[in-house]
Protein backbone atom coordinates (compact mmCIF):
# COMPACT_ATOMS: atom_id res chain seq x y z
CA UNK A 1 0.00 0.00 0.00
CA UNK A 2 1.40 3.40 -0.99
CA UNK A 3 2.01 6.32 1.31
CA UNK A 4 -1.02 8.40 2.22
CA UNK A 5 -1.02 11.88 0.70
CA UNK A 6 -1.50 14.71 3.16
CA UNK A 7 -3.60 17.68 2.05
CA UNK A 8 -4.52 20.96 3.70
CA UNK A 9 -7.99 22.47 3.25
CA UNK A 10 -9.25 25.70 4.80
CA UNK A 11 -12.04 25.51 7.39
CA UNK A 12 -12.47 29.30 7.34
CA UNK A 13 -16.12 30.38 7.09
CA UNK A 14 -15.61 32.02 3.70
CA UNK A 15 -14.02 28.83 2.36
CA UNK A 16 -16.79 26.71 3.86
CA UNK A 17 -19.39 28.91 2.17
CA UNK A 18 -17.65 28.21 -1.15
CA UNK A 19 -17.67 24.42 -0.68
CA UNK A 20 -14.53 23.62 1.33
CA UNK A 21 -16.26 21.02 3.52
CA UNK A 22 -17.49 19.08 0.50
CA UNK A 23 -14.04 19.22 -1.10
CA UNK A 24 -12.39 18.03 2.13
CA UNK A 25 -14.83 15.12 2.43
CA UNK A 26 -14.20 14.09 -1.18
CA UNK A 27 -10.42 14.16 -0.65
CA UNK A 28 -10.77 12.02 2.48
CA UNK A 29 -12.90 9.51 0.60
CA UNK A 30 -10.22 9.39 -2.08
CA UNK A 31 -7.70 8.29 0.54
CA UNK A 32 -6.01 11.54 1.53
CA UNK A 33 -5.09 12.58 5.06
CA UNK A 34 -6.93 15.90 5.42
CA UNK A 35 -5.76 18.67 7.76
CA UNK A 36 -8.11 21.63 8.15
CA UNK A 37 -6.44 25.03 8.41
CA UNK A 38 -7.39 28.69 8.37
CA UNK A 39 -7.62 30.55 5.08
CA UNK A 40 -4.59 31.94 3.26
CA UNK A 41 -6.80 34.91 2.45
CA UNK A 42 -7.24 34.97 -1.36
CA UNK A 43 -10.90 34.16 -1.82
CA UNK A 44 -10.68 33.92 -5.62
CA UNK A 45 -8.90 30.55 -5.22
CA UNK A 46 -11.05 29.19 -2.39
CA UNK A 47 -11.66 26.40 -1.68
CA UNK A 48 -7.86 26.17 -1.78
CA UNK A 49 -6.30 22.72 -1.42
CA UNK A 50 -2.59 22.32 -0.74
CA UNK A 51 -0.98 18.95 -1.34
CA UNK A 52 2.15 17.99 0.59
CA UNK A 53 4.89 16.84 -1.81
CA UNK A 54 8.64 16.32 -1.69
CA UNK A 55 8.97 19.77 -3.30
CA UNK A 56 6.77 21.39 -0.65
CA UNK A 57 3.09 22.25 -0.52
CA UNK A 58 1.46 22.66 -3.94
CA UNK A 59 -1.77 24.59 -4.21
CA UNK A 60 -4.88 23.92 -6.30
CA UNK A 61 -7.92 26.12 -6.49
CA UNK A 62 -10.72 26.76 -6.54
CA UNK A 63 -11.36 23.05 -5.95
CA UNK A 64 -14.72 21.29 -5.96
CA UNK A 65 -15.58 17.81 -4.69
CA UNK A 66 -15.41 16.43 -8.24
CA UNK A 67 -11.77 17.56 -8.55
CA UNK A 68 -10.45 15.37 -5.73
CA UNK A 69 -8.99 12.48 -7.73
CA UNK A 70 -7.12 14.67 -10.23
CA UNK A 71 -5.80 16.93 -7.47
CA UNK A 72 -4.32 13.92 -5.69
CA UNK A 73 -2.91 12.65 -8.99
CA UNK A 74 -1.19 16.00 -9.44
CA UNK A 75 -2.42 16.68 -12.98
CA UNK A 76 -5.37 19.03 -12.43
CA UNK A 77 -5.44 22.22 -14.54
CA UNK A 78 -6.27 24.23 -11.39
CA UNK A 79 -2.71 23.65 -10.15
CA UNK A 80 -1.33 26.92 -8.75
CA UNK A 81 2.08 25.77 -7.59
CA UNK A 82 3.59 26.93 -4.28
CA UNK A 83 1.04 29.33 -2.80
CA UNK A 84 3.65 31.68 -1.32
CA UNK A 85 4.97 32.31 -4.85
CA UNK A 86 1.66 33.65 -6.16
CA UNK A 87 1.91 37.45 -6.70
CA UNK A 88 -0.87 38.13 -4.17
CA UNK A 89 1.17 36.45 -1.43
CA UNK A 90 4.72 37.18 -2.60
CA UNK A 91 4.23 40.91 -1.98
CA UNK A 92 2.96 40.46 1.56
CA UNK A 93 4.88 40.73 4.83
CA UNK A 94 2.95 38.47 7.15
CA UNK A 95 3.42 38.91 10.88
CA UNK A 96 -0.05 38.59 12.38
CA UNK A 97 -1.26 36.12 9.73
CA UNK A 98 1.96 34.13 9.34
CA UNK A 99 0.31 30.89 10.49
CA UNK A 100 -3.13 31.37 8.91
CA UNK A 101 -3.63 28.74 6.22
CA UNK A 102 -0.45 26.95 7.27
CA UNK A 103 -1.23 25.29 10.60
CA UNK A 104 -4.10 23.41 12.23
CA UNK A 105 -5.80 26.18 14.28
CA UNK A 106 -6.46 23.85 17.22
CA UNK A 107 -3.11 22.06 17.33
CA UNK A 108 -0.96 23.20 20.24
CA UNK A 109 1.96 21.30 18.72
CA UNK A 110 1.58 23.14 15.39
CA UNK A 111 1.38 26.49 17.15
CA UNK A 112 4.50 25.86 19.22
CA UNK A 113 6.42 24.50 16.20
CA UNK A 114 5.76 27.75 14.35
CA UNK A 115 6.98 30.11 17.08
CA UNK A 116 3.95 30.16 19.34
CA UNK A 117 4.22 31.07 23.04
CA UNK A 118 7.71 32.63 22.65
CA UNK A 119 6.32 36.12 23.21
CA UNK A 120 4.54 35.08 26.40
CA UNK A 121 7.70 33.35 27.62
CA UNK A 122 9.72 36.53 27.09
CA UNK A 123 7.02 38.68 28.72
CA UNK A 124 6.86 36.55 31.85
CA UNK A 125 10.64 36.85 32.24
CA UNK A 126 10.22 40.63 32.37
CA UNK A 127 8.48 42.91 34.83
CA UNK A 128 5.12 44.39 33.83
CA UNK A 129 6.56 47.86 33.23
CA UNK A 130 9.28 46.43 30.99
CA UNK A 131 6.65 44.70 28.85
CA UNK A 132 4.76 47.97 28.46
CA UNK A 133 8.05 49.70 27.59
CA UNK A 134 8.45 47.32 24.64
CA UNK A 135 4.91 47.81 23.41
CA UNK A 136 5.46 51.58 23.56
CA UNK A 137 8.81 51.32 21.75
CA UNK A 138 7.25 49.27 18.93
CA UNK A 139 4.90 52.11 17.95
CA UNK A 140 1.91 49.73 17.93
CA UNK A 141 -1.37 51.60 17.53
CA UNK A 142 -4.90 50.29 17.90
CA UNK A 143 -6.09 48.43 14.82
CA UNK A 144 -9.77 48.72 15.67
CA UNK A 145 -10.19 52.17 14.15
CA UNK A 146 -9.03 54.83 16.62
CA UNK A 147 -5.29 54.19 16.09
CA UNK A 148 -4.58 55.12 19.72
CA UNK A 149 -1.07 54.08 20.89
CA UNK A 150 -1.50 50.69 22.56
CA UNK A 151 1.40 51.24 24.95
CA UNK A 152 -0.18 54.40 26.38
CA UNK A 153 -3.41 52.54 27.05
CA UNK A 154 -1.54 49.68 28.75
CA UNK A 155 0.56 52.13 30.77
CA UNK A 156 -2.51 53.99 32.06
CA UNK A 157 -4.08 50.70 33.18
CA UNK A 158 -0.86 49.50 34.81
CA UNK A 159 -0.44 52.77 36.71
CA UNK A 160 -4.02 52.77 38.06
CA UNK A 161 -4.02 51.03 41.47
CA UNK A 162 -6.75 48.43 41.84
CA UNK A 163 -7.22 44.97 43.31
CA UNK A 164 -8.87 43.81 40.09
CA UNK A 165 -8.19 44.61 36.44
CA UNK A 166 -9.42 43.22 33.13
CA UNK A 167 -8.32 42.68 29.54
CA UNK A 168 -11.16 43.01 27.04
CA UNK A 169 -10.75 42.02 23.40
CA UNK A 170 -13.09 43.81 21.03
CA UNK A 171 -13.97 41.19 18.40
CA UNK A 172 -17.27 42.84 17.46
CA UNK A 173 -16.12 43.26 13.86
CA UNK A 174 -19.13 45.02 12.36
CA UNK A 175 -17.63 47.21 9.61
CA UNK A 176 -18.63 46.45 6.04
CA UNK A 177 -15.79 44.89 4.07
CA UNK A 178 -13.86 43.65 7.13
CA UNK A 179 -13.12 40.08 8.12
CA UNK A 180 -9.57 40.04 9.54
CA UNK A 181 -10.68 39.42 13.14
CA UNK A 182 -12.85 36.51 12.04
CA UNK A 183 -10.05 35.02 9.93
CA UNK A 184 -7.59 35.18 12.82
CA UNK A 185 -9.95 33.69 15.40
CA UNK A 186 -10.83 30.87 13.02
CA UNK A 187 -7.32 30.36 11.65
CA UNK A 188 -4.91 31.12 14.52
CA UNK A 189 -6.83 31.53 17.79
CA UNK A 190 -3.85 30.76 20.03
CA UNK A 191 -2.17 33.97 18.81
CA UNK A 192 -4.99 36.08 20.22
CA UNK A 193 -4.96 34.08 23.44
CA UNK A 194 -1.20 34.59 23.78
CA UNK A 195 -1.56 38.33 23.14
CA UNK A 196 -4.24 38.67 25.82
CA UNK A 197 -2.10 36.75 28.31
CA UNK A 198 0.82 39.10 27.60
CA UNK A 199 -1.44 42.11 28.15
CA UNK A 200 -2.73 40.59 31.39
CA UNK A 201 0.81 40.13 32.70
CA UNK A 202 1.76 43.65 31.61
CA UNK A 203 -1.01 45.47 33.50
CA UNK A 204 -1.73 43.07 36.36
CA UNK A 205 -5.01 41.61 35.08
CA UNK A 206 -5.95 38.02 35.86
CA UNK A 207 -9.06 37.75 33.69
CA UNK A 208 -9.99 38.59 30.13
CA UNK A 209 -13.11 38.69 27.97
CA UNK A 210 -13.40 38.30 24.22
CA UNK A 211 -16.56 40.01 22.96
CA UNK A 212 -17.51 38.42 19.61
CA UNK A 213 -20.41 39.30 17.35
CA UNK A 214 -23.09 36.62 17.18
CA UNK A 215 -22.76 36.45 13.39
CA UNK A 216 -19.44 34.58 13.79
CA UNK A 217 -20.55 31.12 15.05
CA UNK A 218 -17.47 29.30 13.71
CA UNK A 219 -15.08 31.80 15.28
CA UNK A 220 -16.94 31.56 18.59
CA UNK A 221 -16.70 27.77 18.61
CA UNK A 222 -13.05 27.68 17.51
CA UNK A 223 -11.95 30.25 20.06
CA UNK A 224 -13.77 28.54 22.92
CA UNK A 225 -12.10 25.24 22.06
CA UNK A 226 -8.71 26.95 21.82
CA UNK A 227 -9.18 28.63 25.21
CA UNK A 228 -9.97 25.25 26.80
CA UNK A 229 -6.93 23.64 25.17
CA UNK A 230 -4.51 26.37 26.28
CA UNK A 231 -5.93 27.11 29.74
CA UNK A 232 -3.00 25.52 31.59
CA UNK A 233 -0.44 27.33 29.42
CA UNK A 234 -1.79 30.82 30.10
CA UNK A 235 -2.70 30.26 33.79
CA UNK A 236 -3.11 32.08 36.13
CA UNK A 237 -4.63 34.29 33.41
CA UNK A 238 -8.07 33.09 32.24
CA UNK A 239 -10.31 34.05 29.32
CA UNK A 240 -14.05 33.94 28.73
CA UNK A 241 -15.98 34.46 25.48
CA UNK A 242 -19.03 36.72 25.49
CA UNK A 243 -21.32 36.89 22.46
CA UNK A 244 -22.96 40.10 21.25
CA UNK A 245 -26.53 40.41 20.05
CA UNK A 246 -26.05 42.25 16.76
CA UNK A 247 -25.75 45.90 17.82
CA UNK A 248 -23.19 47.77 15.71
CA UNK A 249 -22.73 50.38 18.42
CA UNK A 250 -21.37 47.69 20.77
CA UNK A 251 -18.18 47.87 18.73
CA UNK A 252 -17.63 51.14 20.60
CA UNK A 253 -15.57 50.26 23.65
CA UNK A 254 -17.81 51.62 26.40
CA UNK A 255 -21.00 50.24 24.84
CA UNK A 256 -19.22 46.91 24.69
CA UNK A 257 -18.45 47.11 28.41
CA UNK A 258 -22.11 47.79 29.20
CA UNK A 259 -23.10 44.76 27.12
CA UNK A 260 -20.65 42.47 28.95
CA UNK A 261 -22.09 43.73 32.22
CA UNK A 262 -25.55 42.64 31.08
CA UNK A 263 -26.85 46.11 30.32
CA UNK A 264 -28.19 47.64 27.14
CA UNK A 265 -25.20 48.70 25.04
CA UNK A 266 -24.96 52.48 25.32
CA UNK A 267 -22.01 54.82 24.97
CA UNK A 268 -20.58 56.09 28.25
CA UNK A 269 -19.46 59.68 28.67
CA UNK A 270 -15.70 60.10 29.24
CA UNK A 271 -14.01 60.65 31.61
CA UNK A 272 -13.48 58.31 33.30
CA UNK A 273 -11.53 56.39 30.69
CA UNK A 274 -11.82 52.58 30.72
CA UNK A 275 -8.13 52.42 31.69
CA UNK A 276 -9.14 54.05 34.97
CA UNK A 277 -12.69 52.74 35.48
CA UNK A 278 -13.84 50.26 32.86
CA UNK A 279 -15.45 46.85 33.16
CA UNK A 280 -17.35 46.56 36.46
CA UNK A 281 -15.67 49.83 37.45
CA UNK A 282 -12.17 48.31 37.36
CA UNK A 283 -9.18 49.48 35.26
CA UNK A 284 -9.51 47.81 31.86
CA UNK A 285 -7.45 47.45 28.69
CA UNK A 286 -9.75 47.30 25.66
CA UNK A 287 -8.00 46.42 22.42
CA UNK A 288 -9.02 45.04 19.06
CA UNK A 289 -8.14 41.46 18.00
CA UNK A 290 -5.36 42.58 15.65
CA UNK A 291 -3.81 44.89 18.27
CA UNK A 292 -3.54 42.14 20.87
CA UNK A 293 -2.39 39.64 18.24
CA UNK A 294 0.59 41.89 17.42
CA UNK A 295 1.98 41.67 20.96
CA UNK A 296 3.53 38.16 20.69
CA UNK A 297 5.70 39.19 17.71
CA UNK A 298 6.82 42.38 19.45
CA UNK A 299 7.86 40.50 22.59
CA UNK A 300 9.42 37.54 20.76
CA UNK A 301 11.32 39.47 18.07
CA UNK A 302 11.81 42.78 19.84
CA UNK A 303 10.10 46.15 19.40
CA UNK A 304 12.81 47.30 16.98
CA UNK A 305 11.85 44.59 14.47
CA UNK A 306 8.24 45.76 14.52
CA UNK A 307 9.03 49.48 14.44
CA UNK A 308 11.39 48.98 11.48
CA UNK A 309 8.36 48.44 9.25
CA UNK A 310 5.81 51.07 8.37
CA UNK A 311 5.40 54.66 7.27
CA UNK A 312 5.58 57.82 9.37
CA UNK A 313 3.92 57.24 12.74
CA UNK A 314 2.11 54.15 11.42
CA UNK A 315 4.45 51.32 12.39
CA UNK A 316 4.29 47.59 11.71
CA UNK A 317 1.92 45.92 9.30
CA UNK A 318 -1.77 46.31 8.50
CA UNK A 319 -3.95 43.39 7.40
CA UNK A 320 -5.84 45.18 4.61
CA UNK A 321 -9.16 43.60 3.65
CA UNK A 322 -10.15 44.00 -0.01
CA UNK A 323 -13.87 43.65 -0.64
CA UNK A 324 -16.77 44.83 -2.75
CA UNK A 325 -16.52 44.87 -6.55
CA UNK A 326 -12.89 43.71 -6.68
CA UNK A 327 -11.30 40.87 -8.61
CA UNK A 328 -8.90 39.61 -5.95
CA UNK A 329 -10.89 39.99 -2.75
CA UNK A 330 -9.18 38.87 0.41
CA UNK A 331 -6.69 39.73 3.14
CA UNK A 332 -3.38 41.37 2.24
CA UNK A 333 -0.98 42.03 5.13
CA UNK A 334 1.58 44.69 4.34
CA UNK A 335 3.64 47.37 6.07
CA UNK A 336 2.00 50.80 6.12
CA UNK A 337 2.92 53.07 3.22
CA UNK A 338 1.58 51.14 0.22
CA UNK A 339 -0.64 53.40 -1.88
CA UNK A 340 -4.38 53.07 -2.25
CA UNK A 341 -3.95 52.61 -6.00
CA UNK A 342 -1.51 49.73 -5.53
CA UNK A 343 -3.98 47.99 -3.23
CA UNK A 344 -6.97 48.41 -5.55
CA UNK A 345 -5.37 47.96 -8.98
CA UNK A 346 -2.16 45.97 -8.52
CA UNK A 347 -3.15 43.71 -5.62
CA UNK A 348 -6.93 43.75 -6.01
CA UNK A 349 -6.79 43.51 -9.80
CA UNK A 350 -9.42 46.19 -10.36
CA UNK A 351 -13.13 45.49 -10.41
CA UNK A 352 -14.70 42.05 -10.69
CA UNK A 353 -17.14 43.49 -13.22
CA UNK A 354 -14.33 44.71 -15.48
CA UNK A 355 -15.74 48.24 -15.42
CA UNK A 356 -13.69 51.26 -14.28
CA UNK A 357 -13.27 51.92 -10.58
CA UNK A 358 -15.28 54.97 -9.57
CA UNK A 359 -14.93 55.07 -5.79
CA UNK A 360 -13.29 53.27 -2.89
CA UNK A 361 -14.51 53.44 0.70
CA UNK A 362 -11.83 52.88 3.33
CA UNK A 363 -12.61 52.33 7.00
CA UNK A 364 -16.03 50.71 7.00
CA UNK A 365 -19.47 52.35 6.66
CA UNK A 366 -18.18 55.49 8.44
CA UNK A 367 -15.16 55.88 6.16
CA UNK A 368 -14.68 58.45 3.41
CA UNK A 369 -15.06 57.73 -0.30
CA UNK A 370 -12.06 58.37 -2.54
CA UNK A 371 -11.98 58.61 -6.35
CA UNK A 372 -9.10 57.25 -8.51
CA UNK A 373 -7.54 60.75 -8.48
CA UNK A 374 -6.61 60.06 -4.84
CA UNK A 375 -5.02 56.66 -5.47
CA UNK A 376 -1.54 58.03 -4.75
CA UNK A 377 -2.57 58.33 -1.08
CA UNK A 378 -0.27 56.23 1.15
CA UNK A 379 -1.98 53.81 3.52
CA UNK A 380 -1.10 55.73 6.68
CA UNK A 381 -3.23 57.06 9.53
CA UNK A 382 -2.04 60.67 9.25
CA UNK A 383 -2.16 60.74 5.44
CA UNK A 384 -5.80 59.63 5.46
CA UNK A 385 -6.69 62.05 8.26
CA UNK A 386 -5.23 64.90 6.21
CA UNK A 387 -7.72 64.02 3.46
CA UNK A 388 -10.65 63.86 5.91
CA UNK A 389 -10.63 60.07 5.86
CA UNK A 390 -9.74 57.21 8.14
CA UNK A 391 -8.17 53.77 7.83
CA UNK A 392 -10.36 52.30 10.56
CA UNK A 393 -10.07 48.53 10.70
CA UNK A 394 -8.43 48.34 7.27
CA UNK A 395 -11.45 47.51 5.12
CA UNK A 396 -11.27 48.67 1.48
CA UNK A 397 -14.56 48.41 -0.44
CA UNK A 398 -14.41 48.96 -4.22
CA UNK A 399 -17.22 50.35 -6.42
CA UNK A 400 -17.33 50.52 -10.20
CA UNK A 401 -18.78 53.31 -12.35
CA UNK A 402 -22.38 52.13 -11.93
CA UNK A 403 -22.55 53.23 -8.28
CA UNK A 404 -24.84 56.11 -7.30
CA UNK A 405 -22.91 58.08 -4.70
CA UNK A 406 -25.97 60.09 -3.66
CA UNK A 407 -27.59 56.85 -2.55
CA UNK A 408 -24.39 55.80 -0.78
CA UNK A 409 -24.33 59.08 1.18
CA UNK A 410 -27.97 58.54 2.11
CA UNK A 411 -27.13 55.01 3.24
CA UNK A 412 -24.51 56.39 5.66
CA UNK A 413 -27.12 58.52 7.43
CA UNK A 414 -29.70 55.71 7.32
CA UNK A 415 -27.18 53.25 8.79
CA UNK A 416 -26.41 55.67 11.62
CA UNK A 417 -30.12 56.15 12.32
CA UNK A 418 -30.69 52.39 12.47
CA UNK A 419 -27.68 51.63 14.66
CA UNK A 420 -27.66 54.61 17.02
CA UNK A 421 -27.87 53.71 20.72
CA UNK A 422 -29.99 56.84 21.14
CA UNK A 423 -28.05 58.39 23.99
CA UNK A 424 -26.95 61.60 22.27
CA UNK A 425 -29.14 63.92 20.22
CA UNK A 426 -26.74 64.71 17.34
CA UNK A 427 -26.55 61.02 16.41
CA UNK A 428 -30.11 59.96 17.27
CA UNK A 429 -31.93 62.88 15.63
CA UNK A 430 -29.26 64.20 13.30
CA UNK A 431 -29.02 61.01 11.31
CA UNK A 432 -32.79 60.93 10.68
CA UNK A 433 -32.76 64.57 9.59
CA UNK A 434 -29.74 63.71 7.42
CA UNK A 435 -31.71 61.10 5.47
CA UNK A 436 -34.54 63.58 4.93
CA UNK A 437 -32.20 66.36 3.84
CA UNK A 438 -30.33 64.19 1.35
CA UNK A 439 -33.65 63.02 -0.11
CA UNK A 440 -34.72 66.62 -0.62
CA UNK A 441 -31.32 67.61 -2.01
CA UNK A 442 -31.40 64.85 -4.63
CA UNK A 443 -35.01 65.75 -5.47
CA UNK A 444 -33.97 69.31 -6.26
CA UNK A 445 -34.62 70.94 -2.91
CA UNK A 446 -38.38 70.54 -3.11
CA UNK A 447 -40.15 70.07 0.19
CA UNK A 448 -43.81 69.98 1.20
CA UNK A 449 -45.41 72.97 2.89
CA UNK A 450 -44.30 73.18 6.51
CA UNK A 451 -47.35 73.29 8.85
CA UNK A 452 -45.25 74.92 11.55
CA UNK A 453 -44.36 77.85 9.29
CA UNK A 454 -48.11 78.34 8.60
CA UNK A 455 -48.95 78.84 12.29
CA UNK A 456 -50.10 82.33 13.32
CA UNK A 457 -47.37 82.66 15.93
CA UNK A 458 -44.77 82.16 13.18
CA UNK A 459 -45.96 85.14 11.14
CA UNK A 460 -42.94 87.27 12.11
CA UNK A 461 -40.41 84.48 11.48
CA UNK A 462 -38.26 84.96 8.43
CA UNK A 463 -39.27 82.42 5.82
CA UNK A 464 -36.29 80.99 3.97
CA UNK A 465 -36.33 80.03 0.33
CA UNK A 466 -36.08 76.30 -0.22
CA UNK A 467 -33.86 74.87 -2.94
CA UNK A 468 -30.72 72.83 -3.49
CA UNK A 469 -28.46 75.55 -2.12
CA UNK A 470 -30.37 75.83 1.17
CA UNK A 471 -30.57 72.03 1.57
CA UNK A 472 -26.85 71.69 0.89
CA UNK A 473 -26.04 74.35 3.48
CA UNK A 474 -28.33 72.59 5.96
CA UNK A 475 -26.67 69.24 5.28
CA UNK A 476 -23.20 70.65 5.86
CA UNK A 477 -24.33 72.30 9.09
CA UNK A 478 -25.92 69.04 10.22
CA UNK A 479 -22.70 67.12 9.48
CA UNK A 480 -20.69 69.62 11.51
CA UNK A 481 -23.06 69.25 14.46
CA UNK A 482 -22.89 65.45 14.32
CA UNK A 483 -19.10 65.44 13.99
CA UNK A 484 -18.47 67.80 16.90
CA UNK A 485 -21.38 66.93 19.19
CA UNK A 486 -21.75 63.14 19.11
CA UNK A 487 -20.59 61.05 22.06
CA UNK A 488 -18.88 58.42 19.93
CA UNK A 489 -17.58 57.71 16.44
CA UNK A 490 -20.90 56.39 15.12
CA UNK A 491 -22.41 59.86 14.97
CA UNK A 492 -19.06 61.61 14.82
CA UNK A 493 -17.77 59.79 11.74
CA UNK A 494 -21.00 59.45 9.74
CA UNK A 495 -20.27 62.82 8.08
CA UNK A 496 -17.11 61.40 6.47
CA UNK A 497 -18.85 59.35 3.76
CA UNK A 498 -21.50 62.05 3.25
CA UNK A 499 -19.12 64.97 2.81
CA UNK A 500 -16.62 63.01 0.72
CA UNK A 501 -19.41 61.89 -1.64
CA UNK A 502 -20.51 65.53 -1.96
CA UNK A 503 -16.93 66.68 -2.56
CA UNK A 504 -15.91 64.16 -5.21
CA UNK A 505 -19.25 63.19 -6.78
CA UNK A 506 -21.52 66.30 -6.65
CA UNK A 507 -23.25 65.32 -9.88
CA UNK A 508 -24.93 62.41 -8.11
CA UNK A 509 -26.75 64.95 -5.92
CA UNK A 510 -27.79 67.07 -8.89
CA UNK A 511 -25.05 69.60 -8.10
CA UNK A 512 -22.23 71.16 -10.05
CA UNK A 513 -18.75 71.15 -8.55
CA UNK A 514 -19.02 74.92 -8.07
CA UNK A 515 -22.29 74.61 -6.14
CA UNK A 516 -20.80 71.94 -3.87
CA UNK A 517 -17.79 74.13 -3.06
CA UNK A 518 -19.79 77.31 -2.44
CA UNK A 519 -22.26 75.85 0.03
User: Could you report the average pLDDT, rounded to the nearest whole number?
Assistant: 93
Widest sheet, order of strands: 2-1-3-4-5
CATH topology of the largest domain: Rossmann fold
CATH class of the largest domain: Alpha Beta
Taking all Cα atoms into account, the compactness measure Rg is 25 Å
Beta-strand percent range: 15-25%
What gap, in angstroms, lies between the N and C termini? 79 Å
* Architecture per CATH nomenclature, i.e. the level-2 architecture of the largest domain: 3-Layer(aba) Sandwich
Q: Largest beta sheet, briefly?
A: 5 strands, mixed
- Structural domain tally: 4
CATH homologous superfamily identity of the largest domain? NADH-ubiquinone oxidoreductase 51kDa subunit
Notes on the protein architecture:
Helices cover 41% and strands 15% of the residues. β10 and β11 form a beta hairpin. The mean pLDDT is 93. The protein contains 23 helices and 16 strands. The protein has four domains: 6-90, Glutaredoxin; 108-307, 3-Layer(aba) Sandwich (Rossmann fold), CATH 3.40.50; 310-400, Ubiquitin-like (UB roll) (Roll); 405-452 and 463-518, de novo design (two linked rop proteins) (Up-down Bundle). The chain has a five-stranded mixed β-sheet with strand order 2-1-3-4-5, covered by helices on one side. Strands 13-12-16-14-15 form a five-stranded mixed β-sheet. Strands 8-7-6-9 form a four-stranded parallel β-sheet, with helices on both faces. By secondary structure, it is an alpha/beta fold. α6 (118-124) runs parallel beside α10.
Amino acid sequence: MGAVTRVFVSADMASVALGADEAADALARAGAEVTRTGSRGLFAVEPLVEVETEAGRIGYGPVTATDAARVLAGDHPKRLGPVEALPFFARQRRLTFARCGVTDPLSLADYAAHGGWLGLEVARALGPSEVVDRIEASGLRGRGGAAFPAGRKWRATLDTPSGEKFIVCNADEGDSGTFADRMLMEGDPFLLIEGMAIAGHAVGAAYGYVYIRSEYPLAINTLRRAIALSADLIAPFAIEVRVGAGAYVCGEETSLLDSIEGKRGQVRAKPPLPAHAGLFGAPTVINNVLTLAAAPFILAQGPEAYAAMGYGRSRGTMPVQLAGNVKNGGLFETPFGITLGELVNDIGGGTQSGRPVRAVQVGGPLGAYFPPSKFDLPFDYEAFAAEDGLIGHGGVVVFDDTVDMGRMARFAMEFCANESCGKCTPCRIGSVRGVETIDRLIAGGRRPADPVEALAQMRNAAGGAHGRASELALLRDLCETMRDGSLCALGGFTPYPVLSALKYFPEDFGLTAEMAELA
